[in-house]
Amino acid sequence: MEINKLVFFVLILFISNSFSQDSKPSFDELDPLSPSKAAFYSAVFPGAGQAFNKKYWKIPIVYAAIGTSIYSYNFNQKKYWNYRNAYKSRKAGYSNDEFQNLILDDNRLLDGADFHKKNRDLSMVFIVGFYILNIIDANIDAHLKQYNVNESLTLKPYIDKGIVANSESIGLSLNLNF
Asked: What 3-state class would DSSP assign to 14?
C-alpha cells in the first residue's frame, strides 16, 4: 500500500512538471533608431513619420496645415501678380486692366501688391514651419514610445479629506518605486 502511494506521488510530480512553462516570455525590443527613422520618413514625405509611429489620426492634421498654407501662398501670389501687372500696365499708358472699373490710383495698386506680397511671404513661412513641426512631432512621438510608463512612476491627482480642518483639498501625488 505504501508503494502505491509513493508511485502515485512520484507520478504527480512528473505530471506537474510536464505542464510547466515551456517558452520564455517575449519582451518587445525597442529600436534605438526608431526616432531617426520617423523623422527621416516625415522629412521625405510629410505624414509618413506619423504613420510609422502608428499615429494615423495626426496625418490629416499635417496635410490640412501644410495644404492650407500652400493654398494661401498660391492665392496671394496670383493677387500679387494681378496688382503688379495692373500697375505696370498703367505706368506704360494702358488703362484696360481688371481694376479699371474700380477707382484705384497707382498708390492703391502698389499697396495691394505689397499687401499680397507680405501675405505670400508669411504663407511660405507657415509652409516651412508646419513642415519642420511635422518632422519634430514624428521624432518626439517615437522617443516617447520608448519611454517606460508604468505604475512605479505615476502622477495621480486626488481629493484629500483634511483631518484637522475637516475640509476637502485637492492634491497631487508623485509615486516613485524603485
From this structure: helix
